[in-house]
Specification:
The chain is of the alpha/beta class and 267 residues long. The chain has one domain: Metallo-beta-lactamase, Chain A, CATH 3.60.15.10. Helix content is 28%, strand content 26%. The protein has 9 helices and 14 strands. The protein has a 7-stranded mixed sheet with strand order 6-5-4-3-2-1-14. Strands 7-8-9-10-11-12-13 form a 7-stranded mixed sheet. β9 and β10 form a beta hairpin. α8 runs parallel beside α9. The longest helix has 14 residues. The protein is globular and about 45 Å long. It starts with 7 loop residues before the first strand and ends in a 5-residue tail after the last strand. The model has no long low-confidence stretch (mean pLDDT 95). The structure holds zinc ion (2 copies). One zinc ion binds next to loops.
Length: 267
């Protein structure tokens, strides 16, 4: 999607098992969450989203799986921005960190100042070394949560991202499509496990614990191309949102095209 971006927002450049990246920006300064696309493709999508003037001041990484880190090294070197992740994630990133300008450890629960945002990492539940999600708070107190690649909603996640204005939440698979789909049994098991990925239904259930009346935009993330359909993910999140009496917009991020969401003031 090409659009005229607002002064502040979040652009989901790509989302899914073939690459993830999201750019959160405010007043011309931004932070990239993950770069699982090639650096060239990430920059092409930033241009497509109309955000080529945003100065990316940090790359924060959720976990070391290649769909989240494949382009980190080249992009970090090209733009001179430091890479942030938990210590155990950095230890697993090896070649992805060679010659990057700076590498910084994030400790879950600690607040970091990155670009114009206060950023806090929280632990997720996934088969990686020490995976995290992130909550960004801008200078006007608006909160953006990104929770992807987690098999369950833990207490820690719920506490960290309750009360967001914009919430990106994993809606990886439709349970029946996964069950009846082509994946081998061990992989189905891995995806469904507590350290796998959230289904549409579990994402909808999670909203019950996470939503407040500030929540104006919900974005389904990391949809499987094999085991999900955007219509199903949107329906599940939309039904959960309506049952909570919210009038939030519901979108799903795509593997192929950027989705740009504005951050508007809390009602
Ligand atoms: Zn992933
Ligand atoms: Zn992963």
């Amino acid at each position: 999607m090409t659009s005229l971006p607002q002064d502040s927002g979040i652009a989901f450049l790509a989302s899914g098992s073939r690459g993830n990246a999201a750019l959160i920006y405010d007043g011309g300064r931004g932070v990239l969450v993950d770069c699982g696309l090639s650096a060239r493709e990430a920059r092409r999508r930033i241009d497509d989203a109309g955000l080529s003037d945003v100065r990316i001041e940090a790359l924060v990484v959720t976990h070391e799986h290649s769909d989240h880190v494949a382009g980190v090294r080249v992009l970090s070197r090209a733009i001179g921005a430091p890479v942030y992740a938990t210590r155990a994630t950095l230890a697993r990133m090896d070649a992805h960190l060679v010659d990057v300008p700076d590498v910084c450890v994030i400790r879950p629960g600690e607040t970091l100042a990155l670009a114009t945002f206060s950023v806090v990492a929280f632990r997720t539940s996934h088969d990686a070394a020490d995976p995290v999600g992130y909550v960004f708070e801008d200078t006007r107190g608006r909160r953006i949560g990104i929770m992807t690649d987690t098999g369950v909603l833990t207490e820690e996640i719920a506490e960290a991202i309750a009360g967001c204005d914009v919430l990106g939440i994993e809606a990886n698979h439709d349970y029946d499509m996964l069950e009846n789909g082509p994946y081998p049994g061990f992989l189905k098991q891995r995806i469904r496990s507590d350290r796998g990925h959230l289904s549409n239904r579990s994402a909808g259930d999670a909203l019950e614990r996470l939503a407040s009346d500030r929540l104006h935009t919900i974005v389904g993330l990391h949809l499987s191309e094999q085991n999900n359909h955007p219509r199903l993910a949107r329906a599940s999140l939309g039904a959960a949102s309506r049952s909570l009496g919210l009038s939030a917009e519901v979108h799903v991020a795509s593997q192929r095209t950027p989705l740009v969401c504005a951050i508007v003031n809390a009602r």
